[in-house]
Amino acid sequence: MVPWSPALAKQRGIYGFDSIDSRSRSFNLIRAKLLDYRRDRQWRMIGVVSATPNVGKSFISANVAASLSRDPRLQTYAVDLDLRRGSLTDSFGLNPANSLRDYLEGAPGADRPAAFGLEGESLVVMPTVPGLVHSAELLAGVRAQTLFREMRASDERNFFILDMPPVFANDDASTTVARLDAYVVVAEEGRTKTREVRDAIALLGENRLAGVIMNKYRGGLLSEGYGVDDYYSAGYGVTRDGGDK
Ligand SMILES: Nc1ncnc2c1ncn2[C@@H]1O[C@H](COP(=O)(O)OP(=O)(O)OP(=O)(O)O)[C@@H](O)[C@H]1O
Ligand SMILES: [Mg+2]
Predict the structure, then answer these.
(1) 25-41 and 57-69 are packed helices; what angle lies between their axes, rounded to 10 degrees?
(2) Distance in Å, CA 188 to ligand 1 centroid
(3) Nearest-CA neighbor of 12 among 123, 170, 150, 142?
(4) What whole-number distance in Å separates Cα of residue 185 and Cα of residue 175?
(5) Does the beta carbon of 13 sit less than 6 angstroms from any atom of ligand 1?
(6) In 3D, which of 173, 175, 166, 171 has the Cα closest to residue 58?
(7) What is the pLDDT of residue 176?
């Protein structure tokens, strides 16, 4: 068990555990959508991807997983599959001796991927200590196949949110999404181009698309997909233009 508390969660930008916090609202909406898909299509292995780096995939993975973990019908796992730039170790303050990457590499002593429970919460985190690796090969390798197979065969209460690298960085995301049930695409308001989202969906296949999430979304009408506010601004009471709210 890793030391954890509601205060620590918020300090680390994870609001999804607290249903009363208004900042958890968008994650709860995404959770509701994923639960619909779980009921209708039995989807429970969901990858979180983007077209380009740094749009908030890991932030959204952690928060959606936190939100899902409050559902007593589920056992939720947050799995870091970004083997080169994984950041869930930082988000949850973990320091694993053997991370998922060691397991996939077949490192001595790493016969199981490390999994951490958080004190007071029911979320389980499977972190990766990032490094320079042939990640596409590792994710296509025997151990990765075993891991995905075990996830699929595991208790039907289990729900997996898998944080991934950007689709166009290398082959990792497309190799992996093919083994999952579905994926969500994270886009950043004002930065990600519609064409980039379309290209990502064309690559990964529309039939597995569970939704598009617009991060740092600043209001207005969103006809398709989900918006997540910019919480730095929200936290400090200023808009991104610098003015007071
Ligand atoms: N809506 C948001 N409000 C506040 N902070 C955010 C938001 N979205 C992302 N961030 C912050 O922006 C930074 C980049 O986000 P994050 O690491 O989640 O992106 P990423 O898409 O996973 O990046 P990478 O491509 O490197 O994996 C982090 O410090 C994260 O906490
Ligand atoms: Mg990330």
Answers:
(1) 70
(2) 10
(3) 123
(4) 16
(5) yes
(6) 166
(7) 94
